[in-house]
Amino acid sequence: MFLENISPTHKFGGYFLSMQIGKGNARFALSIFWIEAIFLFMIPLKT
Q1: What pTM, to 2 d.p., does this model score?
Q2: What percent of the chain has pLDDT over 90?
Q3: Tens digits of per-residue pLDDT, 20-32?
Q4: What are the Cα distances from residue 34, in Å, to 6, 30, 40, 42?
Q5: CB 28 within 8 A of CB 2
Q6: Rounded Cα–Cα distance for residues 23 and 1 (Å)
Q7: CB 4 within 8 A of CB 41
């Protein structure tokens, strides 16, 4: 699958996201999520 190709950064991003939500920093975690989503969207466009 495509997601597995960028595994290190994305898995860390997902772990960091859940960690921040656990701490209650939902708004900050959401911004991290959007940055991740933008990168995921831009990578296939470049190739």
Answers
A1: 0.35
A2: 0
A3: 666 766 677 677 7
A4: 16, 6, 10, 12
A5: no
A6: 31
A7: no
- Tokens 């991003």 correspond to 13
Of 15, 8, 47, residue with least CA distance to 32: 15
Between the alpha carbon of residue 18 and those of residues 35, 40, 43, 46, the distances in Å are 15, 18, 23, 29
> What's the confidence (pLDDT) of residue 1?
39
Break the chain into its structural domains and give their ranges: 3-46
CA 6 to chain centre: 10
Distance from C-alpha of 46 to C-alpha of 25, rounded to nearest angstrom: 32
Is it the case that residue 3 has pLDDT exceeding 60? no
